Amino acid sequence: MANHRRSVNHLKRVDPKLARVIESVGACRLQLRTEGTHFQALARAIVFQQLSGKAAGTIFARLNALYPVDGIAPKAVLATNDEQLRSVGMSRQKIAYLRDLSAKVLSGELPLDAVESMDDDDLITHLVQVKGIGRWTAQMFLMFRLGRPDVLPELDLGIQNAIRRVYGMRKRPSPKQVKKIGARWSPHSSVACWYLWRSLENGDGQLGAD
After folding, report:
1. pTM
2. Sign of CA dihedral 157, 11, 194, 116
């Protein structure tokens, strides 16, 4: 998704209200998080859940420091005792999540070495088997880690709020309504969602309201 011109052109053509948001926000700057391994990206997602970015960043940095040679990896996590993981700020629940992720990767239940060849729905099905990884987290992994172009996180409150404002809806849309409205964006839903998130930051959501 390095060049988003094709996506932007499609979205402008099929959705006039979203087109107004695109014009206001400007160029698409959707970027992938490519550092580290897929496992480390998922471990990071677990650590960052329900915490402020600053607090989570501190904990994740301390967690990384436990593995100075090869970084966070499944075997290393399972070989680390709870006291060490607690000492960096990990809660007992998140330790359990991280261990479950590690075990499922090692067993092959979550084949992270094969994600590039898996379609979106199949990969989400595998990811949500891990404790602590729900559909939203799986979708964020697809969108921002793997660069999948057609991800529509229907459960995301930011997307729901942006759609309500852009389309002049009285109430926040349900996940089913999000899917119905977003159907026209396919196969470029990821870029559409990026613009909807930015519309909230810029205060541009009212542009689409009648």
Report:
1. 0.90
2. positive
